[in-house]
Amino acid sequence: MLAGGALAGFGSISWWLIHEAKVSRLDAKLEALLSRPHPPREDILQSYLPSFEQLLPQELGTGKETPIALLVRERDGKTLYQSELWSADFNLNGLWPSQPKFLPSQFHRRDRQRPPNTPGISQPPLDRLFPLEPPLDRPPPHPKLVTQRTKTGTWRIGAIAFHESQIAIAVSLQGIDREMAIIRDVFLISIPIVLLIITTSAWVLSYGALRPIRELVVAIRQVTVKGLDQRVPIAATDTEFVELIQVFNQMLERLERSFKQASRFSGDAAHELKTPIAILQGELERTLQKAEPGSKLQQNLSNLLDEVSRLSGIVRKLLLLSLADAGKMNLHQVEVNLSEILAEMVEDMELLAPHLQVIAEITPRLKVKGDHDLLTQVLQNLFSNAIKYNLPEGWMRINARQQGKTVLVTISNSSPEIPTSDRDRIFDRFYRGDPARTRKVEGTGLGLSLAKEITIAHNGKLTLDSTPPNQTSFTLSLPVRAIRNS
Questions:
Q1: Rounded Cα distance, 148 and 155, in Å
Q2: Where would one find coiled-coil regions in this protein (predicted)?
Q3: pLDDT digits (tens, 9 = 90+) for 423-456
Q4: Are 316 and 344 spatial neighbours (Cβ–Cβ below 8 Å)?
Q5: How many domains does the chain have?
């Protein structure tokens, strides 16, 4: 845009300067021609002016095809000579100022050389061609020039007033206009070509200059769990970007080190907790068997065993999440029939939530390739979430279908309205929303986050849908065949 504006401005100014230069050159020739002494007497003009008019194209350098008009008249307004091309539309007001009258004693005869012989023009005697003129202390007359537009075109008119006669010459500017039209066409063709060359050159230069930025963009896109070891090469990089790339590589190195430490800590902690929790659970079960039935000790041991089981589930989920963060979640890839899994879960709903109205619309033989146990856990988490946060006499709807090469499972349920702030963070780990709504609901805040990580590992997507008030809906999208290698 800048280059185009500059070229357009340059072309416009150049066109105007060329036009003004041509008009100025014509003005200079008009001034020189009008300032030349001419025969003042009528008897001499009759033979002088027709031949003088014929020489005007040669004197002005316009060519014979350019229309030129001549008008000569006396000071009292009597027309001495008028060309056929002279138009009544020409306005000469103000071009012939009034000249002071001089007494005969004030006139003198200037010593002038005889002008060169002009072919076809008879030369009058010197006394008659150069008669008495005003005093020398009076300034000589100066031509006036003006441009006028008439029905016949644009004309440049020059006029001069001597002490005995007035002369006006009108030259058509159509020749200059034709030349300027050619120059304009040249500009209209050349400027886009030059602009195209500039644009192409600028694009090539900028493409090469921004190559390090594109490498940074590619490296940033690869910054995932498995891409933290990516580095941008510096060997072939321009010196202007070396420091930027070095800082970016150092940032990737710090991120990789910190992530590995966090992932290793969570994985090690979850793994180390599995053994003592398993031992504790076994001891509680053995002690519970020895306790007196119906006693307070048996009740306390039963509550402790429930909490230990809950803690064991948390540790198992944390271990799976740490493996997902590290990109090491092992998937046992088999053909999974989601329709059968959903049908079994719908049957179990009669025992788990008999108070809910369940509506199932499941397309038969919905098959995907993935880990059977992990996908079952995703669906169980969604069913469990729909039961926990449902209304007392609510409903639940399961819709499973295939759309193109994607299997869609939508689980909707009646529920209290979820605030916008909770919707944005509903997949965060250990986030359970408003405590006033969730304090009576069992859970750890890891179910949805784990379900999302498992879905991502299967190249799928788990989303919270936009629904009317008092309704919640999750949609699980899984590809029919493709699965990410882990």
A1: 5
A2: none
A3: 777 887 766 665 544 445 555 667 788 888 888 8
A4: no
A5: 3
